[in-house]
Amino acid sequence: MDSHFGDRLAKSCAEKDSFVCVGLDPRWESLPDSIRQGVSPTDLQAVARATQRYCQEVIDAVAEYSPVVKPQAAFFENLGPHGMQALWGIVQHARKAGLIVLLDGKRGDIGSTAQGYAAAYLGYESPWQCDALTVNPYLGDDTLAPFHQAATDNGAGVFVLVKTSNPGSGFLQDLQFGEPGDSKAIYEHVAEHVESLAVSHTGESGMGSTGAVVGATYPAQLAELRAQMPHAWILIPGFGAQGGTVEDVKHGFRLIDGTSTGAIVNSSRGIIFAYQKDNSASDWQTAVAAAAKEMRDQLRAI
Amino acid sequence: MDSHFGDRLAKSCAEKDSFVCVGLDPRWESLPDSIRQGVSPTDLQAVARATQRYCQEVIDAVAEYSPVVKPQAAFFENLGPHGMQALWGIVQHARKAGLIVLLDGKRGDIGSTAQGYAAAYLGYESPWQCDALTVNPYLGDDTLAPFHQAATDNGAGVFVLVKTSNPGSGFLQDLQFGEPGDSKAIYEHVAEHVESLAVSHTGESGMGSTGAVVGATYPAQLAELRAQMPHAWILIPGFGAQGGTVEDVKHGFRLIDGTSTGAIVNSSRGIIFAYQKDNSASDWQTAVAAAAKEMRDQLRAI
């Protein structure tokens, strides 16, 4: 691999002329009938195998249109150990298909344990061989350091939660601290730190290996955070099913040499369950591929 | 099981007259020679099997002195899928030994995904069959709701990170917001919400099923938070190797009918690697058991 994650991501987006990240959130009840056929929902080993097959077929369908896939750890963990085995196989499959694998685990712990998580996931020498991981900043800057260090050392990436897409994200992230007239929000405080990590390890693309998560559902904050973190890649969830539009996510991009870059936009349900809405497709994979292609084309307008 | 986690924890602490939580953080390089013998550190399947054996023997050694064990998810995830299989076996072993299993995963995600994590871990009908899980509040109150609901429904427990034990926890948790003269810290804001969840579902013991994590390394805040969350069980990490003492952790307990309750104190390295310091023991398990017994006796002074 290129030794720098930010460069690798930039290159992959440029090659596919696409900023689409496909979220793999395989809720069993939403999987195609052809995948679920003959599998008892209580047989977790069989469910995990079928889920793996489904995710791999999704990957095959979207690989042309998407530089990145983002497996959501929760939906593999909730199948028990068999689900984790399935996740491993899916990561391998995505890598063979040339995709960047961003594991959405939102991990975070005190320093020595954060090292354990970083060693688990970051880089092709790690057990899970992922390209990048989402992490949670609540525990503090010292707990982000081991992730940033491992990413830097292993050509991998980290995406720190800054402003999340859910309705209640303001509960903690929007709280203002500091003197009146000179206050800022918690998410801005985290963003400042993310930018300091990003700028400490930029590649040829000008972008860092540590980036941020900012929801499409908060476009004003996205614009503000783009300006505040010029060297950070931004993962933008909340597009599609959660309500984010092209108009919303455009604020997450920056121009370098006349070209938009610096952000990837995630859609999960809108792509991987596209067959639920698209009755015209001959099979579920065709519907999934069409949805990924459509999203790529929509984002090209940026 | 008793249908209420708070009651179950109270009963188990009372029966063993112990507030000891043994943290299972099995760093391979620190495991006893007899466990590591003949195992190549790069053979993750063999490492995972040996790690499982070690953890199960730790459980057997401490079961008499400790009502709760707390496996740290990171140290199983960093052995890949085989590590997760080992974790599953360890949970089963601990349950058979009559111990309450609190998985330290610090999970957190937007609502529908939080439901996935909760379904994965909380309760004996879940794939991992844990009694309780640690969760992270950064994403907001709406993301804690599915964990609290699942715990309430399944006789399980949730421990929300409030004030963590690491040196950098103040980076975010100590920030003060609100009007001058009427400001409070982020951790107090989270604590208020935890108390509201705890009090919404108390059992016969008077304690809730949703509790908090507060580090022994911040005794002043621990005392303050104990008063602020009278119905919340507090998991107190940071005892022993991280520097917390009996004098520090006593602030985390409350008196009900003249008896101390409402807190469990975690030690990981101080117990599970006790053989590194105790040369008098005939074997490593004896040293581990002695360390657990000593901690139990120390805490009885409270």
Quick overview of this protein structure:
Chain A has 302 residues and is an alpha/beta fold. The first copy, chain A, has helices at residues 5-16, 33-36, 44-62, 74-77, 80-96, 111-121, 141-154, 170-173, 186-199, 219-228, 246-249, 269-272, 284-300; strands spanning 20-24, 68-71, 100-107, 132-135, 157-163, 176-177, 184-185, 210-214, 234-236, 254-256, 259-261, 263-267.
Tell me the number of strands of chain A. Answer: 12
Provide the residue-averaged pLDDT of chain A.
96
Structural class, judged by helices and strands of chain A?
alpha/beta
Helix proportion range of chain A: 40-55%
Query: Roughly how many Å is the radius of gyration of chain A?
Result: 19 Å
Placed side by side, the strands forming the largest sheet of chain A appear as 1-2-3-4-5-8-9-12
Task: Write down the domain tally of chain A.
Answer: 1
Strand content of chain A: 15-25%
Q: What is the level 1 CATH name of chain A?
A: Alpha Beta
* Largest interchain contact: A-B, 60 and 60 residues
CATH topology description of chain A: TIM Barrel
Characterize the biggest β-sheet of chain A: 8 strands, parallel, barrel
Question: What is the subunit arrangement here?
Answer: homodimer
Q: How many individual helices of chain A?
A: 13
- Low-confidence segments of chain A, ≥5 residues, pLDDT <50? none
Distance between the termini of chain A: 28 Å
